[in-house]
TrEMBL record, chain B:
Name of the featured protein: Ferredoxin
UniProt key word Iron: yes
Single GO term (MF): 3 iron, 4 sulfur cluster binding
Role according to the record: Ferredoxins are iron-sulfur proteins that transfer electrons in a wide variety of metabolic reactions.
Alphabetic keyword roster: 3Fe-4S, Electron transport, Iron, Iron-sulfur, Metal-binding, Transport
Length: 389, 64
């Protein structure tokens, strides 16, 4: 396994659990044992949790996996025909099977001095700079930027949130839900500025495309991620916004990919996707490991993606593949009250459901309908409030 | 084997319920509840699946 975060660890554990007792090498470029990332923009940034709480497994459980653990060393190359992975320390690791789980890294803006939020170190550095009265500019009002803005606001920072789109997250969750999430910032006094493009980070803040300087003490750039695939250049693996895999998560013979870096064909939605969600990392790591270990009984990886986000007092949860949806309908609760379920239509099918403030069993029914490939007309009554797309 | 659940780490994803509905449930806020902390041997595979898919690493199986 190359990549020692959630997907790589899940693959390693699955291989052991399913009876593989050979050499198992886990390579990771960060020095820490596998740790959890979602709390970085939540409890860690809020200084509620110490880093030790993020360990994905206690040391004893990790030791029980009997891994050849190579931490703090990045993979730099892959020889498919020789079946070896080259590492930054000059060593080569031979393999019979390979799982690529090298994840993503944050996109950045021109200019120096801005924070990003991907690793534990990133989170600790930003955490130590936040506090009452600190002027923070967050570039990008996606899920990560919104969570960080919410935490910084709670810590008493003066937060400005810059977003190029007219409505934050509209492409992901639809304009109406995006507007609700935007309102949560505005109601609390976060200065949300939509339709503005940040072009550069300067010593004094963020320079916008129209020349205006948004002054700040700290800048967090949260404008999306790019897959860590450079080390695969020239290897022969197909790379195109991620490692390109088939529906089994296989990229080449005995080479699989999992987690944020993997682009695979999800037969449930009939489309190629790359999912940067925590639950997908584990599920895909497990699926890739099983298919690698037992090719004769391998199964297509056809999950219903799931994500959650904590912003202020809201927990947002969603199942499905919402991107590119054609229509949104509020099917339960009330959007204005911030307590609702929204269903998403793509083509003629139910492609997703998103809930805020609803009990879990309500959303579970929608997950089942998505997993069953329900048609929109079957799943959504025609009297539902249609929000349009 | 005994199941341990750190409820304050739980993120209410419900992944454990999908994997092992005889062992886990969720309260109205979505936080996981342990229905059976010493599950029967035939449920252990489901519990191990729940541990693997839990996005908060909030579940452990410990030797008694």
């Amino acid at each position: 396994m190359v990549g020692a975060s959630a997907a790589g660890l899940a693959a390693a554990e699955t291989l052991r659990r399913e009876g593989y007792d050979g050499t198992l090498t886990l390579v990771g470029d960060e020095p820490q044992a596998p740790y959890d990332r979602p709390p970085l923009s939540k409890q860690v940034l809020a200084a509620q949790w110490q880093p030790a709480r993020l360990a994905l497994r206690p040391p004893a459980d990790l030791a029980a996996l009997d891994l050849d653990l190579r931490l703090g060393v990045a993979a730099t190359g892959l020889e498919l025909t020789e079946r070896t992975v080259r590492l930054a320390d000059g060593t080569e690791v031979p393999y019979d099977g390979l799982i690529v789980a090298t994840g993503v890294r944050p996109r950045r803006l021109p200019g120096a001095g801005a924070h990003v939020l991907r690793t534990l170190d990133d989170a600790l550095v930003l955490r130590d700079r936040l506090g009452p009265g600190v002027r923070l500019v967050v570039v990008g009002a996606g899920f990560l930027g919104a969570e960080a803005a919410a935490v910084a606001w709670r810590l008493g920072a003066k937060v400005t949130l810059l977003e190029p789109a007219a409505v934050p997250l509209a492409h992901a969750v639809g304009a109406e839900v995006g507007a609700l999430l935007a309102r949560a910032h505005v109601e609390r006094g976060v200065d949300l500025r939509c339709g503005v493009t940040a072009s550069e980070v300067t010593e004094d803040g963020v320079r916008l495309a129209d020349g205006e300087l948004v002054e700040s003490d700290e800048v967090l750039v949260a404008v999306g991620s790019q897959p860590n695939t450079e080390w695969l250049e020239g290897s022969g693996l197909a790379v195109g916004d991620g490692v390109v895999c088939d529906e089994y998560c296989e990229a080449a013979r005995n080479v699989y990919a999992a987690g944020d870096v993997a682009r695979w064909h999800n037969p449930l939605f009939g489309t190629s996707m790359r999912i940067e969600h925590r639950t997908n990392a584990a599920e895909q790591g497990m699926a890739a490991a099983r298919n690698l270990l037992r090719p004769d009984t391998r199964k297509p990886f056809a999950p219903v993606p799931y994500f959650w986000s904590d912003q202020y007092d809201m927990k947002i949860q969603a199942y499905g593949y919402l991107r590119g949806h054609d229509e949104v309908a509020v099917v339960d609760g009330d959007l204005a009250e911030g307590r609702f379920v929204a269903a998403y239509r793509t083509g003629g099918g139910l492609s997703g459901a998103l809930a805020v403030g609803m009990p879990p069993r309500v959303l579970r029914v929608w997950r089942q309908a998505i997993a069953a490939g329900a048609a929109w007309g079957e799943a959504v009554r025609t009297d539902a409030t249609v929000a349009g797309a | 084997m005994k199941v341990e659940l750190e409820a304050d780490k739980c993120v209410a994803s419900g992944q454990c319920v999908l994997a092992a509905m005889d062992v886990f449930d969720q309260d109205d806020d979505g936080i996981a509840i342990l229905l059976e902390d010493e599950p029967a041997p035939e449920l252990l595979d489901d519990v191990k699946e729940a541990i693997a898919v839990c996005p908060a690493a909030a579940i452990r199986l410990v030797e008694q």
